[in-house]
Design brief:
Ubiquitin-like (UB roll); disordered N terminus; 758 residues
């Protein structure tokens, strides 16, 4: 009834505004009441022209058209003889928009957002737009946990038909999650389940992460994490019955209650394979992670279907479909799975497309690809190609898609999309101790010179200990088969007088040629041949063995080192690996043509394996041995040293091993170091790929003359480390705490290494 009455009133108003009159021919049109708007604007929107015959219907349509512009709050049409008179009352213009009490948002960003919806300085004031802006502003505050926000909007009329709009905001306090309760759990303690959640109660880092502020999206993600946790542990019938979110009357505290039903725990009774397998069944069965007698795990079911699909993909079946169908026996609490395999059509790759490389040349990327155009589709080769591109270190991200070619059933394109990152680096290394203060070193390099994939580096170090000038160039693809070559030219001066090692000085000038020959996709044999001359200086306080060496073999020595090495790299990333290994065995021997006669053997390995979705385990080890031949000793300046951020953290760099009577490190001919390290996301950065922390246990020893102090065996340390690909470059911090340090050992708990990218 009310709506009908309003409609009649509106019709009456329009009829009244048009002043019912007999139809007439318009000889002229006059506009009255305009202040800011030009008369031409009114004529442009008015659907009546001189010469038209005006009727009541046309007059009503004209009024509606002018109202529809939003410029006017009142429009009337009258007749003055044969002249149509248009009376208008303009809407006010917005002179200024002010915000009072806004601290949570940037005021200029708010003005920009309002401008996008039509509420801005010099625009026509529209009450409906203002109400929408108020609701949106309130919603933004609610999204940030400020449920007690009070918003008051004032519209102040000004002269010349203008208005000021003032938003006065009382933001109130941020509502915090005070308690999260899980009801119905019996198999797992509530504390363990809440540890899975991103949402949490206030803690020492929540001021930054905002995880103590309620978010519907975060809660949904946490509930899915909870569901996955139970399904991966056999609770096939687990369900979340209800989720209640309540807020206290003062809008400051939020309480969340989650009610669950765990259900019984199911075991796997049988696993079968059905369908068109196309691959020997025995081979596919080995890929099924779920075994009879085990506890049911949805994660293993998902992984099994993926492995089978990938295996079929290696045979060209890009669109293979594998479904795991369960058969549940509730009485026995068992579930049997049948994996139905539909390989689909066998397809081949039409084109391999590369996108996102603005600096790196296409050929640099394509030479790493193992999936070729025109060949059968292979999921393994595509994944291997992606991994090789990741290991280059040129890209932040490497993504691959395999869309079907439109209009075909047996062709796909492979699209690689890369996000480039700076490949030049200005590296700084530093350590701090009470005796030495801050010690710095650095180098400048470009690993993707002019986008060619070639590496060029210049090391300049003018520190107290090492003065190095080195120029290196590496061409990783000298031949199309991947044979690499490189050259190093260097001048290296070492002054150990300020360190905790035996005092000496060396000045070395040399050149080295390198050659790398790939023997498999992951294995490379490296050869090197160099020539160098070293001048050695000792002092009165130098260790006697250093002085004896110079007295026996002279101050100047020529050397022609020949090196051969084997390297295998199966890591999935060059920066933050999650799986794979890096192994390197190296042999260096001086050719008899020189003054020196020695050899050095070493082996290094890093093994990464995922422990959970976010935790990664690293086992690292290095062993080395060196000696002389033809009656000559291993030069003391070729000794192995340990201690520092790259070997045994918590001990000063190069300080482990035998020491002389002056308590200075001598180094040794035998090195053994290793560590166990567990990496995990930096608190508050769970999904961030640029930062992570670790806890470590390091061990290491350097052996030489066992009669010297410091030769008592292994030293151990533990601590925490932080790695961050910061805006100024890779940053690595460590806090190491020696576990079995001797009185003569040199400790250095805090160590860091910083790199700056450009």
């Amino acid at each position: 009834m009310k709506r009908r009455l309003l409609g009649l009133v509106a019709a009456a108003l329009i009829s009244f505004s048009a002043h019912a009159f007999e139809p007439f021919v318009v000889r002229d049109i006059r506009v009255e009441g305009i202040q800011r708007i030009e008369a031409g604007t009114v004529f442009n929107y008015l659907p009546l022209k001189v010469g038209d015959t005006v009727t009541e219907e046309k007059a009503s349509a004209a009024i509606k058209a002018l109202y529809g512009t939003g410029f006017f709050k009142d429009v009337r049409l009258e007749r003055d003889g044969d002249v149509l008179v248009v009376f208008v009352e303009e809407r006010p213009a917005i002179s200024q928009i002010d915000f009072i009490g806004v601290r949570e948002f940037d005021v200029e960003q708010l003005r920009a957002a309002l401008k996008q919806v039509g509420l801005a300085q010099a625009r026509i004031f529209d009450r409906a737009l203002l109400e929408r802006a108020e609701q949106e502003l309130k919603r933004q505050y609610l999204n940030r946990g400020k449920y007690g926000v009070q918003l008051n909007t004032t519209v102040t009329p000004l002269d010349r038909n203008r208005v000021n709009i003032t938003f006065t905001v009382d933001e109130g306090e941020v509502a915090k999650i005070r308690q999260i309760n899980i009801v119905g759990n019996a198999a797992f303690p509530e504390s363990q389940l809440l540890g899975l959640f991103q949402l949490t109660t206030p803690g020492w880092l929540t001021w930054y992460t905002k995880n103590d502020q309620y978010s519907k999206q975060k809660l949904s993600a946490d509930l899915e994490t909870l569901r996955s946790f139970y399904l991966d542990r056999g609770y096939l019938e687990f369900s979340i019955d209800s989720t209640q979110v309540s807020i206290t009357p003062d809008k400051r505290d939020i309480y969340i209650t989650i009610t669950v039903t765990e259900g019984p725990r199911f075991t796997v009774s049988d696993v079968k394979l059905e369908g068109d397998l196309r691959v020997p069944e025995e081979e596919l069965r080995k890929l099924i992670q779920l075994k009879p007698g085990e506890v049911f795990s949805r994660a293993k079911v998902t992984e099994s279907t993926k492995l089978i699909s990938d295996r079929l993909g290696d045979e060209g079946y890009a669109f293979a479909n594998v479904n795991a169908v369960p058969k549940v026996d509730k009485e026995k609490k068992e579930v049997a799975f049948t994996f139905f395999v539909d390989p689909g059509r066998r397809v081949y790759v039409r084109r391999v497309n590369i996108q996102g490389n603005t600096r790196t040349r296409d050929e640099v990327i394509r030479r790493e690809l193992r999936q070729l155009e025109g060949a059968w589709y292979s999921a393994r080769k595509i994944e291997e190609s992606k991994k090789r591109l990741d290991r280059l270190g040129y890209f932040k991200e490497v993504n691959v898609e395999t869309p079907a070619v439109p209009g075909t059933t047996d062709q796909v394109d492979v699209n690689f999309t890369v996000v480039e990152q700076p490949t030049g680096a200005l590296l700084l290394g530093a350590g701090f101790s009470s005796s030495e203060g801050l010690v710095l070193s650095g180098s400048i390099s470009q690993n993707n010179f002019l986008g060619t994939g070639n590496a060029l580096s210049l090391q300049v170090n003018s520190g107290k200990v090492n003065t190095v000038y080195a120029l290196s160039f590496t061409q990783p693809y000298w031949t199309v088969d991947g044979v690499s070559r490189g050259i190093d030219i260097y001048k290296r001066d070492v002054d150990s007088t300020s360190l905790d090692v035996g005092s000496y000085k060396t000045a070395t000038l040399g050149i080295n040629f390198r050659l790398g020959v790939p023997i498999t996709a992951d294995d490379t044999i490296l050869f090197g041949l160099g020539a160098e001359n070293t001048e050695v200086s000792t002092f009165v306080n130098s260790p006697q063995r250093f002085i004896d060496f110079v007295n026996t073999f002279g101050r100047s020595n020529s050397n022609f080192p020949f090196t051969v090495a084997w390297q295998r790299d199966t890591r999935d990333s060059a920066f933050f690996p999650r799986s794979g290994r890096l192994q390197r065995a190296n042999a260096e021997i001086s050719i008899p043509a020189g003054d020196l006669k020695y050899y050095k053997l070493s082996y290094q390995q890093q093994w990464f394996t995922p422990l959970t979705r976010t935790w990664t385990l690293l086992l690292r080890g290095e062993a080395g041995y060196g000696d002389g031949y033809n009656g000559k000793p291993l030069p003391f300046y070729k000794n192995f040293f340990a201690g520092g951020i790259s070997t045994v953290r918590g001990y000063r760099t190069g300080s482990l091993g035998p020491r002389d009577v002056n308590d200075e490190a001598l180094g040794g001919n035998t090195l053994v170091v290793g560590s166990v390290e567990a990496f995990f996301p930096f608190p508050g950065f769970r999904d961030d790929k640029t930062a992570r922390m670790s806890v470590f246990l390091d061990a290491g020893a350097v052996y030489g003359d066992k009669s010297k102090a410091g030769s008592e065996g292994f030293r151990f340390s533990t601590g925490v480390s932080v790695s961050w690909l910061s805006p100024v470059g890779p940053l690595r911090l460590s806090f190491g705490f020696p576990l079995n340090a001797k009185d003569t050992d040199k400790k250095e708990p805090f160590q860091f290494q910083l790199g700056r990218t450009f």
